[in-house]
């Protein structure tokens, strides 16, 4: 039986510093029948020239260069729209696949044709790809739960079955962050999930990542919107377990605390108290209470001021 085509999808914006490593990791896969789709979102660095140099040497690479920056959701959707594979998975243009990643994922897909999403664990790495730890929360979603209600489980490398993807509304082009989370919620509504208990992906943490470090507040907002959309979809369908309204309010409380912290750090005091009030109104003592306290204090200007005074002593 011929091996199915696997599409590796890469949405890129100004990752010229790292994209060569990402491309090379795809081309070095032990699984032969693959294509690499790269959609560049209006990069202004060296990305395009690097992509072109690889595409000229390997016919498996197909790329599209957008003249303007459209955002993460629109770029990821473009990738999915032109993918030809029976299965496809995204790799960050600053991340790396281990050489057996696609082979192991395709094997799991073929063993579990009922699965809309197959995913592995990954290693969290620093900017130089030194491995720090395995992915937090990676694992099976327990029976009787859903990814939405359990709150953890799905991590990179995540692979999608095209026929199930086509049953959903697909990637939401309006999303700027948490695009993958929004899609995972949709996929579990039309098929099963399977976890491959191996680290197959190197996830690079860097200061400009759209869902890490200084962008955490924005990432939490879009994550909340993905949860909200899934909640309303599932009110109309009983195919998979839905989140409770009070748990949804608790997450929005986290989002508002993050916004309050950002405002206080920027000396926007009135704005800080406004968002803090929104957080308290949404939810106070809930499962995220400790997280909210940490977000408000440990990331605040006040905390930084205390640390600076200690260091001066």
Structure explained in plain terms:
By secondary structure, this protein is of the alpha/beta class. It folds into two domains: 6-204, Spore Coat Polysaccharide Biosynthesis Protein SpsA, Chain A, CATH 3.90.550; 244-312. The protein contains twelve helices and nine strands. Strands 1, 2, 3, 4, 5, 6, 7, 8 and 9 form a nine-stranded mixed sheet that branches.
Q: How many domains make up the 3D coordinates?
A: 2
Order of helices and strands: EHEHEHEEHEEHEHHEHHHHH
Strand content: 15-25%
- Unreliable sequence segments: none
Q: CATH first level of the largest domain: which class?
A: Alpha Beta
SS class: alpha/beta
Rounded to an integer in angstroms, the radius of gyration calculated over CA atoms is: 20 Å
Number of strands: 9
Mean pLDDT: 92
Which percent range fits the helix content?
A: 40-55%
Termini separation = 71 Å
Largest sheet: 9 strands, mixed
CATH architecture of the largest domain: Alpha-Beta Complex
Could you name the CATH topology of the largest domain?
A: Spore Coat Polysaccharide Biosynthesis Protein SpsA, Chain A
Please count the helical segments.
Answer: 12
User: What is the CATH homology-level superfamily of the largest domain?
Assistant: Spore Coat Polysaccharide Biosynthesis Protein SpsA, Chain A
Q: What global shape is seen?
A: globular
